[in-house]
């Protein structure tokens, strides 16, 4: 974690959020609503990189959002690297920077900016899934 501390020093008073699994969910668990917003609502944030451009955010107890970055964040989905999100103020909004850093050296591998956030809803469980 000493590498995250060096990023904090380099960025001043910006808060950094390190990627954490968004409750073990994948995009297949959700339906896309087509409802977009520029910022996430207030709450406790967790997020996970699905691939180099898509991030799944969980806010609070169970609000989920998909974010498609404006450009690729190479290796964001790799567990060999750490994804760090810039958070300024109390909200996370489009345009916020994401850095992919080497887990060992702390060096930045790639970076991108978040796009708009699309609200997702959990798909209803099928009868097969309910009996598991």
Write a brief structural summary.
With 132 residues, this protein is mainly beta. It has 2 helices and 9 strands; from the N terminus they run H-E-E-E-E-E-E-E-E-E-H.
Descriptive overview:
The structure is a single chain. The protein is mostly beta strands and 132 residues long. It has one domain. 11% of the residues lie in helices and 41% in strands. It contains 2 helices and 9 strands, in the order H-E-E-E-E-E-E-E-E-E-H. The strands form 2 sheets. The protein has a 5-stranded antiparallel beta sheet, with no helix packed on it. Strand 3 and strand 4 form a beta hairpin.
Strand neighbour order, sheet with most strands: 2-9-5-4-3
From the alpha carbons, calculate the radius of gyration and give it in angstroms: 15 Å
Average pLDDT figure = 80
> How many strands appear in the DSSP assignment?
9
Instruction: For the record, give the distance between the C-alpha atoms at the N and C termini, rounded to a whole number.
Output: 39 Å
Q: How would you sum up the global shape?
A: globular
* Low-pLDDT ranges: 1-16
Number of helical elements = 2
Strand composition percent: 35-45%
> How many structural units, i.e. domains?
1
- Major β-sheet annotation: 5 strands, antiparallel
Instruction: Estimate the helix proportion, in percent.
Output: 10-25%
Q: Which class best fits the helix and strand makeup?
A: mainly beta
Order of helices and strands: HEEEEEEEEEH
């Amino acid at each position: 974690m000493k590498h995250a501390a060096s990023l904090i020093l380099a960025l001043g008073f910006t808060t950094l959020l390190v990627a954490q699994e968004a409750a073990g969910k994948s995009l297949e668990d959700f339906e896309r609503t087509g409802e977009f917003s520029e910022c996430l609502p207030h709450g406790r944030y967790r997020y996970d990189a699905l691939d180099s451009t898509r991030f799944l955010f969980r806010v609070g107890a169970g609000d989920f959002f998909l974010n498609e970055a404006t450009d690729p964040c190479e290796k964001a989905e790799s567990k060999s690297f750490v994804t760090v999100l810039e958070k300024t103020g109390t909200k996370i909004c489009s345009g916020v920077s994401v850095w992919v850093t080497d887990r060992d050296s702390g060096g930045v591998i790639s970076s991108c900016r978040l796009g708009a956030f699309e609200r997702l809803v959990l798909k209803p469980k099928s009868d097969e899934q309910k009996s598991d």
